[in-house]
UniProtKB/TrEMBL annotation:
Gene3D superfamilies: CNF1/YfiH-like putative cysteine hydrolases. This is Laccase domain-containing protein. Belongs to the purine nucleoside phosphorylase YfiH/LACC1 family. It comes from Olsenella profusa. It catalyses: inosine + phosphate = alpha-D-ribose 1-phosphate + hypoxanthine; adenosine + H2O + H(+) = inosine + NH4(+); adenosine + phosphate = alpha-D-ribose 1-phosphate + adenine; S-methyl-5'-thioadenosine + phosphate = 5-(methylsulfanyl)-alpha-D-ribose 1-phosphate + adenine.
Length: 288
């Protein structure tokens, strides 16, 4: 059964499923283990929040090393996130294709589907919902950024369909992971926006007046695309209440770094380093 456990690899703390097979390695990073100074301390992976670019580059190098992708920083696909529903697809790992995917992503996108080996993908977050979707047998993966606009547009469903098309598999074979995000109790929105989501996704989207449950809506979008509830694993930690571990735009007054959702498909087998598993925190992220 899929699950998320907390790990420490090379000083970088992250959440991952070590049991994923087929060559895909992914992680939701925490904020520890980097070189950035306050208010971006310390593993800030976002390049557009005011941090020193040299620190961001070193942090990204460390995060890639933690998932066995050290040396691939120059091949990293990291979109300029625009709260839309555009999906970039990387189907080849040759230099020209990677450069084209990087350019398309930098022009604006909120999801990346990758079926090419040795092309790492990073999206950045500080309350919005990170989604990683893994295809079976090493066929590929997808990473999506689902803020309220992207959630309303059902970017998780769009990304699922794009991954199925690229990987040649059905949605019933996918595994989906919903990473750390702001919880409903901490996410108060306008009455108008709450009403829109309740209409679009059902009353469960607004469990208490004006409090929006983005993860509920993301799970609903995944279900619409054919990913069964038993194939979805959700991190229940609210970023707004765990700022010692994650960045939170809302809780930190709009000035903070960004943690990441990071994934790569390796052409050669890679295993987590011995001793990298943190058993004491196992179960903090659970299936729903």
């Amino acid at each position: 059964m899929a699950s998320l456990t907390r790990q420490n690899a090379g000083g970088v703390t992250l959440l991952t499923d070590r049991a994923v097979e087929g060559g895909v390695t992914f992680a939701f990073t925490e904020r520890a283990g980097g070189v950035s100074e306050a208010p971006y301390a310390s593993l800030n992976l976002g390049a557009s929040c005011g941090d020193d670019p040299a620190c961001v580059a070193e942090n990204r190098r460390r995060a890639l090393a933690a998932i066995g992708a050290e040396g691939l920083l120059g091949r990293l696909v990291c979109p300029r996130q625009v709260h839309g529903d555009h999906v970039v697809t990387v189907g080849s790992g040759d230099a020209g294709s990677v450069a084209a995917a990087q350019a398309e992503a930098e022009a604006g996108a909120d999801a990346v589907v990758c079926t090419a080996p040795d092309v790492p993908v990073l999206l950045c977050f500080a309350d919005c919902v990170p989604v990683v979707i893994v295809a079976p047998g090493g066929r590929g993966f997808a990473v999506a950024h689902s803020g309220w606009r992207g959630t309303e547009a059902r970017i998780a469903a769009t990304t699922t369909r794009a991954l199925c098309a690229a990987a040649g598999c059905g949605p019933e074979a996918l595994l989906a992971y919903v990473g750390p995000h702001i919880g409903a109790a901490d996410y108060e929105v306008s009455e108008e926006l709450a009403a829109r989501f309740a209409t679009a996704f059902g009353p469960g989207a607004v469990p208490t007046p004006r409090h929006l449950d983005l993860a509920f809506c993301v799970r609903a979008a995944l279900a619409e695309a054919g990913v069964g509830e038993g194939r979805v694993t959700v991190c229940e930690d609210s970023t707004a209440r765990t700022t010692g571990r994650f960045f939170s735009y809302r809780a930190e007054g709009g000035t903070c770094g960004r943690h990441g959702a990071l994934a790569v498909l390796r052409d050669e087998p890679w295993a987590w380093p011995a001793g990298s598993k943190d058993d004491e925190t196992k179960g903090e992220a659970t299936r729903r």
